[in-house]
Design brief:
The structure is a homodimer of 208-residue chains. Chain A is of the alpha+beta class. The first copy, chain A, has 7 helices and 10 strands. The two termini of chain A are 37 Å apart. The interface between A and B is medium-sized, with 35 and 34 residues. Chain A binds a DNA duplex (30 and 30 nucleotides) through helix 7.
Amino acid sequence: MEKYRHLFRDLELGLQQELQEKGQILEAKAGKILIQSGQNIRHTMIVLEGLVKLYRENDEGGEFFMYHLHPGDGCALSLICDRTFRASSVTAKAVTDTVLLVVPVDETENWMRQYRTWYHFVVGTYRKRYEELLETIDHIAFQNMDERLEFYLRRHRNALNTNVLEITNTQIAQELNSSREVISRLMKKLAEDGKVRLLKNGVEVLRL
Amino acid sequence: MEKYRHLFRDLELGLQQELQEKGQILEAKAGKILIQSGQNIRHTMIVLEGLVKLYRENDEGGEFFMYHLHPGDGCALSLICDRTFRASSVTAKAVTDTVLLVVPVDETENWMRQYRTWYHFVVGTYRKRYEELLETIDHIAFQNMDERLEFYLRRHRNALNTNVLEITNTQIAQELNSSREVISRLMKKLAEDGKVRLLKNGVEVLRL
DNA sequence: GGGATTGTGTGATATTTGTCACGTTGGGAA
DNA sequence: TTCCCAACGTGACAAATATCACACAATCCC
């Protein structure tokens, strides 16, 4: 816990203490599914280390990438999900090996009253996620696949903090709810424009 | 204020009192723009009467319908917006003549600590809006225009609680970010299928 | 090596949606 | 009335994307 102190340096000391006492540290391997909505959620989750991605699924197996959570980010979902979520659902999956801090929601409800900084943390979390969702909406509503692909690559480069993305076209197609062939063609164009370089098992982002 | 009491019957009495004291009642004519984001928001807004719609705008004049607010609904936006919102923005517009209760955010931050029911109200508001946004995302991501149109009509029929929607195809096209001609054609198909009846100045929803 | 699996590249074609051009209709307002 | 304007309907065409069919390469397993 000590090594994650910097993530919480803006919180009141009493709250830092409580996080340490009431929270439980959880490790997850890359690829592990952390939340599959539909199930009732009784815990709030804060990412300490690693990267988590959230995506939407529908009945026909379609997926749709929503956003990433970085160290220090809380999961707005944990506060949002409950039984009433229906057929289609939101899933959280560890992209890299991940360490999480998990707290029962009963505690957090008290914190909301006791600690001003927790209130700000929660509101800030909602705000950020809401904004990212809106940004996502903008892209599907207003933009074509080529621009969406570029946005996708930028986002992932920033999230993973590396220009070399080890990701298959098939996977990208799924997350953008497109088809492999389309991504393949667009990727070729990006390569011709010198914006990316195609690797054996991934893409290198050159300038986007 | 008395006539709106039923909207707040689940709130603590002290809180009802405060809403009455600190809140200000505001009336708006149909069509009035209530919030244009980008501007800093210092007030929380609760709908008392009428119907408000929220939509997203982008730089090129594109619009995109997000969801409605009914009496009793709070505006998640008021808690979410701030300076950091950029170029594209969210707009709230009165659909019918509307009565609003407006409270400075400084008050509500205290309420969050003092009143458990306020906490639940706020979290519930976030949850509902988040869910509606997700539903919206599902539709643009996974569905074709015809299904999206049907969904649009259903939503509006339910929101306005009438089968006769006085709305132009042009307007629908804008809110779905499509074009008038496309809506026109799809509408004709819906009419042929007996799902709607086309009126002089609107649509009657028959079975959807 | 041989076979299965997975990801890829590409042409041909279908579907969906957007765009353009133009004619029609039904109000107001002068 | 006449003119104007906004909304509408429609055919023709263009653009974006999805789908199909197939061939190819790399990898893994036996």
